[in-house]
Known about the structure:
The protein has 7 helices and 4 strands; from the N terminus they run βααβααβααβα. By secondary structure, it is α+β, with helices and mostly antiparallel strands. It has one domain (2-130): 2-Layer Sandwich (Alpha-Beta Plaits). The chain has a 4-stranded antiparallel sheet. Adenosine-5'-diphosphate is lined by residues 52, 57, 61, 91, 109-110, 112, 115, 118.
Amino acid sequence: METTLILLKPDCIAGRKAGEVLKRFEEAGFQIRGCRMFRADPALLREHYAHIADKPFFPEVEKFMQSTPVIALALAGDNAVARVRDLIGPTDSRKADKGTVRGDFGVDVMINIVHASDSNENAQIELGRFFQPGEIFDYEMRYHTRD
Ligand code: ADP
């Protein structure tokens, strides 16, 4: 079992696709362990995007990521990091297959609907970045809906 960190980005929020994207994750069997909406401030973005902070496109990414609040999700499941990355497709939405989240809803390489951790090690760091320890829950799912 792994837990990975997802961000529903401003294009997802503004395009009213949060429910659709979360539905895909739930239907793939992932458990929601945490969910939080907040505005990403410049300091947080600089930390989260340290690996691209010196790129010429970074100011545009900063502006984009602050254009609406975002939603962070902690999702758990077998091999969650790799499986979620497969479900969302590659960074550039134009190169993502139809049927993937980015392929179906993303616009381009920046406006690409979601962030998802790219390794288990980064997932641990990113979960700690966006959630307080008490905001990630460990629980059993005993009662179910009708199928
Ligand atoms: P990923 O989000 O798929 O892990 P990266 O870590 O490389 O991809 O990039 C972080 C984010 O920065 C991307 O999701 C995207 O929003 C933005 N980005 C990446 N490359 C570019 C680019 N060439 N031009 C504009 N924005 C970019």
